[in-house]
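QUALITY CONTROL LOG
STEP: pairwise intake check
CHECKER ROLE: data steward
CRITERIA: each record must contain a sequence immediately followed by its structure tokens, with no blank fields

ENTRY 1 OF 2
RESULT FIELD BELOW
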Amino acid sequence: MCFQDEVDQSVKFLKNGKNILYPTDTVWGIGCDAFDINAVKKIYRIKNRSFSKPMIILVDKIDRLYELLGKKISIFTQQLILYNDQINQKPITIIYQVKKRIFDKFFYKGNTLAIRLTHDPFCKCLIQKLNRPIISTSANISGFNTPKSFSEIAPYILSNIDYAVKLKRKEKAHHKNSQIIQILSNRIKIFRT
């Protein structure tokens, strides 16, 4: 699939502090540059989401994950990611302990950050071209059902985003959402299945 034009167009919006509606490795998401606090706040307003509920950050490669964390991940975590990619194939978001802060709004209790290493080709290219991680949150108003396809996205969401990517609009999501886990002392705590 050729999507370089959509990547270029999306990056123009992201670099200008705008948000995009885009297909992810799970459902359609609303995203922005993860380091642009004003763009992040706008997504919270669009979703009518409490600022106490952090959002997921997508990264394209393990090195970018290390940059965000300020450290490498354990062998156990690396093996879990590899196993999940090869066997389970359902995207997983991992809540990591972090030393350095990005923005308070991303953090759960105890200085943690929810990050997913995406394998979706469009998302990977988008992050690479922007050269920064992006926010990923489902394209719905908080408390309402998560749309499984572009056609199920509420008109309110569509009218409040800055740019909607013109890919995969006829496809249904393969996964409703990502599994969210945290790894503490090589033990897995599941937050969302």
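ENTRY 2 OF 2
RESULT FIELD BELOW
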Amino acid sequence: MGKAVLVSDKIPTVEYDEDNKTDGVRYVDLYESTGRVYIRKISGFYQKVRRYTGLPLLAVFLLMPWFTIDGRPAMLFDLPARKFHIMWLTFWPQDSMLLGWLLIIAAFLLFTVTVLVGRVWCGFTCPQTVWTHMFVWAEHFCEGDRNKRIKLDQQSMNLNKFLRKTAKHSLWIYISLITAISFVGYFTPIGNLITDLLAFDVSGPVAFWVGFFTLATFANAGYLREQVCKYMCPYARFQSVMYDEDTLAVHYDVSRGENRGARKSGDDYQARGLGDCIDCSWCVQVCPVDIDIRDGMQYECINCGLCVDACNTIMDKMSYSRGLIRFTSEGDLSRGKTKFLRPRLFAYGLIMVTMIGSFSYSIAARVPVTLDIIRDRGARLYRLQGDKVQNVYTVKINNMDRRPHKYTISVSGEHDYTLKGYRAMELEEGEVFTLPLRISVPRNQLTHAKNDIVLTVTARDDPTMSATEVSSFIGPKPQ
């Protein structure tokens, strides 16, 4: 047996050649282009599910920038102003912890769903999948179904091919441009964005990002497609860690389908030692990631269910029972039963519910005002004025509410503290106000050199909008 060498750009590994007793080099492909995938158009239950899940999410993405609440977009990430408007709430950079928690919750939700029903997020609601199917629809509309597209690509360029290709790419560009404008509309008011684009009067950064996301959408959904799922998406690489034998996923029933072979409807195929699979390859032709589900579970599979619809269509034509390819578990195939209640699923669900509850409470209890106090750290830690001791502070109030408020400040502690140089101030939405503040106390009341005080800022028109901060008051050592 000679050396096996795979030519690739690629990673070399050492193999031992038993015939020549020498080491050989084998090149392993980390990326392999399988050529263009021609997806057959199919209808069925899971195709309808994809439509009813993908279209609402697509509608929300396209329409959300147009909704307004209190005269502003319902969802606007205003990066220059460092404000994030989400429905009736406004978040600031200091609320970044909430964003972190939200991302963790989304991750655990994905883990929980994956343990239960596999990669259904990828197959039904992932943006890459939704946009790819929109682009495939444009192909079907302009060039016809799978066989017609294959024949069209094999033809030399003529008027018919030129017009069909032009129409398809025009639709792709239109979808990509609408996608880019909608996405940029989450970062700048979309009404002004449309007006500026129509007048060719947009700033350089805005024009760059609209162009960038147009090209990115065109490339991802038009050409990369399954390569994104196979080689770019990290979820495909670690999802197997979350699978177990009771995870529901798309499976081929080997015991029922093998041996494969062609036959006519009504033939006694079992007498010929054949199974229910007629080897029509429809399950491969409809697969958006170009795999054969009959080869077993593969990390590329996104559980979209198209192969299930295709196989059920063939089973109906052959008058066989449906379910040769179906959503099931390895446990069901091997022992005839799927365990839905299991420790891993319960643990993920419990953690997710706990985090969602904590996050919801944090949002509900969130007060849109903050107070920061910095005590004067000059050479003089305190000042003596007659029989009183005085400390100087710098107070910063941040009104994070969507309305202006007039705020008052109060101080409390173990002794009779009083404020000087203070007046109620009205802060506009998003305004940060800084003022110097002097706090004094009778010297004979101090029992320690360092004392704790609590400053509280409260909105006059809404007492629930209140923030407190603890600081220290420094005085002379008591005699």
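INTAKE CHECK: passed for both entries
DESCRIPTIVE NOTE, ENTRY 2: The two ends are 98 Å apart (CA to CA).
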